[in-house]
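User: quick one - fold this with zinc ion bound?
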Amino acid sequence: MNRAKKKIYAEELKEIKKKLEKRFDCKITSNKDEASIKAIANVLDTLGIKNKEEFMKNVAITIYKTIYLPFEFGCLTIDPLRQLELVAHELEHVLQWEKEGVLKFSIDYLTKGFASKSPLDPILPDTSQC
Ligand SMILES: [Zn+2]
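Assistant: Sure. Structure tokens for the protein plus zinc ion:
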């Protein structure tokens, strides 16, 4: 990919992110900052997940109206289509949180699995697991 094309992709992805956040009234962020790490760690503690560092490196998670990705959305080292695919999947969870409420959704998360693999993983997101 040449530099000019990369720039277009980066800007398009930024634009798409803004539109999705507005449309779904949510936030799409990476799990790299301290506040995000804390929020996710709390949930993982509740779920009894021990290897938090490994989880955060590989897995996307949606907590209420925030989608935490294990990378910066729009980064060009990951295929833009795979990023969009993952975000589309996580947006379903935003809608589920909204529709089912925090309690029911939390129970489903606990009993049916709760997160999708990141596109960093060579395996496509396994929707049956989330
Ligand atoms: Zn999922």
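One thing worth noting: The chain is about 60% helix and 10% strand.
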